[in-house]
Design goal:
12 helices; about 80% helix
């Protein structure tokens, strides 16, 4: 992974943590995530008017991505409803890279260097340390943990699906834009059914934050998918997990969550993982 790709993917991690902080900051995480999905989808509509459609070979990947992202947004809402961002976000983002690396190497036969493996392991240990700290402080929730772990598998799924989808799409930007546009509909329809008239009342008060979160979401994932065309999927996915560092910082600053010494130690582990991958 060269320096430019490294910093692009790192910027993706910052943006990802930012939109999750917005999602957690709302009072109804289901509607909040649907607004964010809609904001990202609406933002790409002008580009779709000028981009060629992705090649037919990539459409099965788009369908798979649509399926994965519905559950991704749903599990985020269900986890954030019960616990703080530092706990749920860390599990979701941190358990995913090891799952992804194992599948990428064992099933997809992608090579991962020793430094890449060291980075994945250090990132995973950092995440586990953060999780243990949350449990020690009495912030453990069985349901939230299950939703967060389920989302780690979903993250693994869409990372692999989209990582290969962009490679056969013939046009990376077109694939990304169509993916975001299609993602509007499943989670929005679900939120409308679940909240009914309350959906529109909530949107009226939070649409600005949602659009901002959507823009961050679109940029974060678009940059990550671009990175997957320049470096192994497992390595890009693992580097994106530095978002847990920024997530903890954003949660402490904007959501007033406690930044403990154990969390700081875990952040050091995550940073060490990123450095190992860079080397």
């Amino acid at each position: 992974m060269d320096s430019f790709v490294f910093f692009v993917v790192l910027g993706s991690a910052v943006l990802h943590a930012a939109w999750n902080a917005i999602a957690k900051g709302g009072s109804d995480q289901l509607v909040e995530t649907s607004i964010i999905a809609a904001g990202a989808g609406f933002a790409v509509i002008p580009a779709l008017l000028f981009l060629p459609p992705p090649l037919p070979e990539s459409r099965i990947y788009l369908f798979g991505s649509l399926f994965c992202h519905f559950f991704y947004y749903l599990f985020i809402a269900l986890a954030y409803r019960r616990v703080d961002m530092s706990y749920a976000y860390t599990i979701m983002r941190g358990a995913a890279p090891l799952f992804t690396a194992l599948v990428s190497v064992c099933v997809l036969r992608e090579a991962l260097s020793p430094g890449g493996w060291a980075g994945v392991l250090l990132l995973s240990f950092g995440v586990l340390a953060l999780t243990a700290d949350a449990a020690r402080r009495g912030a453990f929730s069985g349901k939230a943990t299950l939703f967060a772990l389920a989302n780690a598998f979903v993250i693994m799924g869409y990372s692999i699906v989209d990582g290969h989808g962009v490679r056969v799409s013939g046009h990376t930007l077109s694939y990304i834009c169509w993916m975001f546009f299609c993602n509007i509909f499943p989670i929005t329809l679900y939120a409308l059914i679940a909240r009914r008239s309350g959906y529109f009342r909530y949107v009226k008060t939070r649409w600005r934050q949602g659009l901002c979160g959507g823009a961050c979401s679109m940029a974060a994932y678009g940059l990550a998918l671009w990175g997957m065309t320049r470096a192994p999927v497992a390595m890009v996915t693992a580097l994106r997990e530095t978002s847990v560092v920024f997530g903890v910082v954003f949660a402490a600053i904007f959501l007033k969550e406690k930044l403990t010494s154990a969390r700081i130690a875990a952040v050091v582990l995550v940073l060490a993982g990123a450095i190992a991958m860079r080397i």
